[in-house]
Amino acid sequence: MLKLAAIILVVTNFMTLSFMDYVFCSVETSKEEWSPISAGPVTTWTAPLCGKGRFVVQPFTFYNRTRGAFDSDGRYDSIPKRNNKYQFQEQLFAQYGLTDRLEFDAQTVYQENYVKQGSSNAHADGFGDSYLFTRYCVLEEEDRLPHMTWLFQLKMPTGKYERSDADKLGADLMGATSGGGSWDPGFGVTLTKKIKPFVFHADTTYSFPQQVFVDGVKTRYANYLNYDFGVEYVLPKGFNLMLEANGFLQGDKLRDGARTPSTDIVYLTIAPGIGWSCGTIQILIAYQRVVIGANTDANDSMVLTLVYTF
User: Looking at residue 168, what DSSP letter applies?
Assistant: First the structure.
């Protein structure tokens, strides 16, 4: 009887351990298997890197139309009926994975600006500002912890920012209004967390414009903060829905050492979108709308992007 009891106890323990191993292995496998592929949000960073030895290219096409502007007090004014302002942008973003935890990225943009004021029309095209990025993964997603990546970026003033042609109505200025002509280093962090069927993303970057001369005037743009939140809802057959919010905060700039009042810039953009992914290709189409702001244009934009991994 003792031998029989011992045999039963051993078999029972073995079956219990096997069942528990099966349960936990199944949970871990399901967690590993649910790793949806998508183009991600338009502006919000995704924390996972592209992977060692991988080269990823992502072209963007933007159509931006200005419907009005927000003044320094945040009041919205529609653009006059006889006026018109719109823009086409072609951006190229590229990633290369040096290791599984370290990657280098670059971004450049070519744009075409169109302005109509009454009976006057203007058009100009050229390169906007460019960016270099270094991203390092400090934490991979596990249990309740999100995927976390540190970011260093450098904005390079490759877009025209001074000596505007009066006949171009400002259309020939291609540099960023947040710091045209300045070199802007910045530091940030990106978070991604998967909670099936959702994928959440968030990032923030703080940048430090350097002093620059704009049309002969010593100019120092204020430091600025970018913050983004995005969520993807993963659907069957490779589809996903996306919603993101993109914010920007910057104080007044200095000209010849004196603060220029009412030159701060604030805006918040909301963007819904829909995407489809298959293997090495991911596609996203989205609509962006600036909903609140100060000293900024109120734009509506259509965005199309495609990701391809080599």
Answer: G
| pLDDT, tens only, 111-137 | 999 999 999 999 999 999 999 999 999
User: How far apart, in Å, are the Cα atoms of 44 and each of 120, 269, 290?
Assistant: 37, 11, 15
Q: Which amino acid is at 66?
A: T
Furthest-apart CA atoms within the chain: distance in Å: 105
Q: Kindly give the parts of the chain with pLDDT less than 50.
A: 1-31
Residue 182 shares a structural domain with residue 304: yes
* Ranges of H-type helices in the chain: 2-33
- Output the pLDDT for position 33: 60
Total of domains in the chain: 2
Asked if residue 209 has a cis previous peptide bond (ω within 30° of 0), the answer is: no
For 192-243, the pLDDT digits (tens) are: 999 999 999 999 999 999 999 999 999 999 999 999 999 999 999 999 999 9
Q: Are residues 143 and 286 in the same domain?
A: yes
> CA angle at residue 184 from 180 to 189, to 5 degrees?
130
Residue bearing tokens 């009887």? 1
Domain that holds residue 195: 36-309
Residues 17 and 92 in one domain: no
Whether 254 contacts 230, CB under 8 Å: no
Q: What whole-number distance in Å separates Cα of residue 139 and Cα of residue 148?
A: 5
Task: Judge if 116 and 27 occupy the same domain.
Answer: no
Question: CA–CA separation, 294 vs 298, rounded Å?
Answer: 10
